[in-house]
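Listing 4. Sequential folding, example run.
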Amino acid sequence: MPDLSKRLTILREKQGWSKAETARRLGLKAPSTYGNWEYGIREPDLDTVRHIATLFDVSVDYLIGQNSEPSYKPVTTKEKNDIAKRLEKIAEDLRYEEHQHLNGEYLQEETTEYIIDSLEFTLKQAKKMNN
């Protein structure tokens, strides 16, 4: 499960939970168990992976790196055509997913931050103008 530790960290941080809080929500007796999963020292068993997927409302495929989309729910046409949602997803991918490319080249950190800032500014301005 190569991406599991990274994705656990991303999902937990998005919720604003500590490792201890996440462990509590998963019903673990020792918070260090969860910490070991995030550090990639150990991996949870399949039943626990399913429980983690339920907790974070993502698919097991996403957790184990088989799918880049976290949700297993079908996307509606309205959501698919919503530019704001699509741009927010791009910004999220830039923030949390490693090895993003621009014209076939790896994005430098400064470039990534510039694109995220630009997307956020553009969305803010577009929402003001569209109202």
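-- end of first protein; second protein begins --
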Amino acid sequence: MTGSGATERRSRKDAARNREAVLAAADDLFTRCGSPEDVTMADVAAAAGVGKGTIFRAFGDRAGLLRALYEVRLEPIREAVEAGPPPLGPTAAPRDRVPALLDAVLCFKLDNRRLALALEEGGSGSPYRAEHYGRWHGLLQAVLEQIPGLPDSDFTAHALLAATRADLVEHLAGEERVPREKMRAQLADFTARLLACGPPCGAAAGE
């Protein structure tokens, strides 16, 4: 039994080590690649020094690997959102927290352009069905509901997140070469104008 337990512990350590090696290799490859599609599972396996089967056992498929890498990079922001100070943390005033959350999403996607694009364009279908999208939408909707007079928090959350889609970020930052700070300022202005749309705006839209 002792030998079996030691073997199991070694196996778990090996699996954890392999997982870290795969994530580190994928992180490096996606950072340096010209296009997300240029990176294959075989490339990641070779860079990590493991077999392709190891990756499939640990992550399921390419989309699973992308999600895992995305979550690792996102962890500092998630911690700030869940327990950090204002303006990202839960004690922030809703009108301050909404633009701070969107700015965090935009900056994350600017810093992780190829990874975010690969994940949103992956074979999982619509990006709106992705788990991370659902979390951001749910959080934004909950904060928007705390703003008096703001109509339709569900749609508003979708509309605001649309401005941070990876394909739009890639287009603006890559093809149009919009500077980072200009993009942040544009998103902040768009958010402020949308949040200023109280009952009169909603009433006019319904006429």
